[in-house]
Amino acid sequence: MASIEMTNIVKKYGDGFPAVNDVSLDIADGEFMILVGPSGCGKSTLLRMIVGLEDITSGDMVIGGKRVNDLAPRDRNLSMVFQNYALYPHMTVFENIAFPLRLAKTPDDEVRRKVNAASDVLELKEHLERKPANLSGGQRQRVAMGRAIVRDAEAFLFDEPLSNLDAKLRGQMRTEISRLQRRLGITTVYVTHDQTEAMTLGDRVCVLRKGKIQQVASPRELYEQPVNLFVAGFIGSPPMNFLPATPEGNRLKTPFGDIELDERRAAAVAGHDLLLVGIRPEYFEDASLVDDAKRPVGSIFRAKVDVTEWLGDSQYAYIPYDAPDSIKAHLRDLSKELDSEELRTQAIVSIDATSRIREGREAEFWLDSRKVHVFDPESGENLTRDAEAGAELTRLATQDRLEHLESARAQQDGASDGQTGARGGATAVGAA
Amino acid sequence: MRYLFRPPATDATGLLGLPWDQPLEEWDSELLLDVPSRGISRHVVRFVAVEGQVYALKEIDERLARHEYALLAQFEGEGLPSVSVLGICVDRPDEQPAILVTRYLEYSMSYRWLFSRPRGHGSPDQLLDTMVVLLVRLHLAGVFWGDCSLSNTLFRLDAGTFAAYLVDAETAERHPSLSPGQRDYDVDLARERVGAELMDLQFGGLLPEDIDPIEVADSLPRRYESLWEEVTREEVFRSDEQRYRVAERLQRLNELGFDVGEVELRTTREGTRLRVETRVAEPGHNRRELFRLTGLEAQERQAQRLINDVRAFRAYLEQKAGHPVPDTIAGHRWLAEVYQPVVDAIPEDLRGRLEPAEVFHEVLEHRWFLSEKAGRDVGTTRAARSYFATVLPGAPEELTTPSVIAGRG
Fold first, then answer.
1. pTM (2 decimals)?
2. CATH architecture of the domain with range A238-385
3. Any CB–CB contact under 8 A between A316 and chain B?
């Protein structure tokens, strides 16, 4: 297991276009790092440079303290998991996991020890003597993971591993990967275009856009303290709503009425003309259902509802709003860049499932103004980001991770102590 | 549902009546053709015969299906050895995956069949070399396979030697050219997959005892490296050796089964620097020539063999007529008077085991063998009769190509 350090990594193709542009990123030993972004952002290229499939134009790629820029893929000792895995019908599950070791002529007892240890973690122990034809879809994928585990790779790499699975298996595998990574504590780099995967799996998430890093942070920091319009729009589903806003003293004038800003944020937006205010769907509520205690921290506005969507446990209302042409153009560009189809001059608002707000009627909404962010539409910069609060969120996540890692490693040590004895027994039986 | 087919897709019209709305796994076995296991697939694969043609249908995620469809079409257009793709069916009900339709590669053999048989049908050395030629050809064309394995390769006899075809392009990627890392990765993956596939045969008791999977697999990178070096290396030699060294190099490449597109000679201080641009397409001049002369389609080495016979026949015609005979006339008479009678004489129960052009090639070999023994030319008719009686029955029945089986009803 190892850390992966990238310094000023650039990848230029023949036409001079930088697919990856000056990326510096440190992935800690045992960390689960997600590379995410829309198609063409450079995430896969970056992963391929880690693996050794793509030459590095400039910069340093250091794995486990060793510069690997000029090493062949196999000499980097990394494992691409699930990539075109195949199960061999005549071999038992045991042999299906063991074969990379067999090909490397590993001694039998070592093969047995490693496969047994991997199958423990993967909960495949009862299936080891079976043929793979009898395995479920999820178990098959676990066998593929077993192969990666027995190789003792420095890190696991995943390139959109779930994108070709059906929805059910996808959800199941997401949980498995997450659980396994925690148990094994192995450095993992995972590429996806799916922000839900990114948010649920990663210790930290690196958001890329046009070959450049936008922000590297814990999922919570990305969600609560996005660095710019791009990250704010990409992370979260349904996405953040962006409304035109004009600052006036400590207030923002918006199509949903005036929003009051605290001192820090009011100062940050002062002197600007036309801005965008970003409000997540869950910062809204049906005004009639808001606690009296909460009411004063937000504002009330009336709007006509276009559509409501009741999902049983939750409910969404769609509220169209007007925006100047310049803002519409910005939002259209943003949608295009994020590969999303939504027309962004319609707010998606989360309301309580019990709310009786009806389609086509005007209704009263409450808006929590404490968590809104204000963006400069030209530069995209988040003017109200609280860097310190964000850093604290990521610090807490890192602390959680380290605790997990420690207990996973303690458990593994315990397990391998136990297994030494078992192994001795098995060998003795084999010899007799 | 939507069907996308590449022209000429008149073939496709017969396929439209199939139950595309149902999961492939649930299709009525009456509709399907039983083709023995050809390799290991992660997907549901089924075969159907329509109007004498056999197709392979693979159920696969739409994104992958579109990707594979586009790539296979490109490969075919460029003459890379791959299966031929017909089309895809997408937007199937209940969010079912897409189906990719390829034409069954007639007279092809899988590694399972080839390796699990005692010698005579290709040694592991021969098969691995053939596979490496395919991989080098793909790499020269900027194709990263990402899944090079015996399961994804089909073999066909070509005048006694083998030719390899890519069957599965699901994970393949097209680049302007490949980085050393991409080639390394592909070769390493191939080594591992070949090793595992042979070990699997061993576990199934299907591998002859004298084949060691690890040894065979470990030889793959070496074979690849030496072939890659041979087809890409730049050479420097003295100006006075220039002529024969260039000829030597070109001949060597031809022997390895590669055509040369362009030869570049640069004079430098150390001597003449030779760089050859190796063509990625399968060599095809003999195939084209045979097609022009006779309208027959065959593989390259088979075509070479058949053309030689056409030439000999033309010489015989000219001698008999006492004046020159145009090559196209000779070609058409050869087809009607020499080739077709041999093919038509293949006994019904032995049909489809070998490609007709391969049968003809073997008859010519047999004729040479009989003539040598008899001390005189025994003639094609007699050679064919003897061949059908003594040699062809030795070609296993399992080899019979599915379209012939389907034709028997």
1. 0.84
2. Beta Barrel (2.40)
3. no
